[in-house]
Amino acid sequence: MRTADAPFSLRVPHADDVEVLARVHVQAWRETYADQLPEEFFGESALEFRRGVWRRVLSHAAPASRTVLAERGGQVVGFAHAGLPASPEQPPPADRELFMIYLLEAHHGCGAAQAMLDAVLGVEPAFLWVAAINPRAQAFYLRNGFEFDGIEKADDRVPTFMERRMVRTPDDSQRHNHHGRMIRRAAGAATGAFPSDARAELRNDWPE
Question: For the chain, what is the mean pLDDT?
């Protein structure tokens, strides 16, 4: 079977997944942001930071949080995480925030990213922050009913790294509700009782 044709599956992560999730996290950041961020964001200190993030994510329970990982060919290749708003900007534009969704580059186009988004958000109104220079991700979110709301910010440590906020309103959700049956099936198969995020740590997503 060609890699492009290999099926994927979603599941709820557990404590034993900390190391692999940290490594996939760093690799995904390197693939996505290598030309925008310094090397320190992809090295050993970054990996240790991600280990800490995922330990906190997988060791705290919060009913409003949802986390899934994607596996393909027996390997973890991506993850998604959403929960109650943690961004400091007030008031939040929706009751749920997508903190992160990453799929390794070699697996783009297999459908796992869409399934993960459906699993953690369904068709609910939500918001997220996306890198200003990430057209692939922006197109993905636009297809899923998110729109730019004009809010931007620069990171304190890397002022050239800009993020733009995208929001899916109730009206946007309704327009995309024709996917509802598929979304509910994906979410029901993948989610169950979700471990929580450590929301502040995930929103402050830079390695120390």
Answer: 84
Average pLDDT score over residue span 85-107: 94
CATH number assigned to the domain comprising residue 38? 3.40.630.30
Taking residues 176-191, report their average pLDDT.
45
Q: Please report the beta strands in 7-51, taking only residues with DSSP state E, as ranges in sequence order.
A: 8-11
Residue 99 in domain: yes
Supply the pTM of this predicted model. 0.82
Residues in a beta bridge with 167: 127, 147
Q: What angle do CA 98, 49, 12 make, to 5 degrees?
A: 45
Helix (H) or strand (E) holding 142: helix 135-143
Residue 2, domain member (yes or no): no
Joined tokens for residue 197: 């995020």
Asked whether the bond before 91 is cis by omega within 30 degrees of 0, the reply is yes
Would residue 208 count as lying in a domain?
no
Nearest to 36 by CA among 170, 122, 163: 163
What's the number of domains the chain is made of? 1
Is the pLDDT at 181 greater than 90, yes or no? no
Domain span at residue 172? 8-203
pLDDT at 87: 85
Neighbours of 96 (CB within 10 A): 22
122 three-state secondary structure: coil
> Is 185 part of a structural domain of the chain?
yes
For the segment 43-76, what is each residue's pLDDT rounded down to a tens digit? Answer: 999 999 999 999 999 998 666 899 999 999 999 9
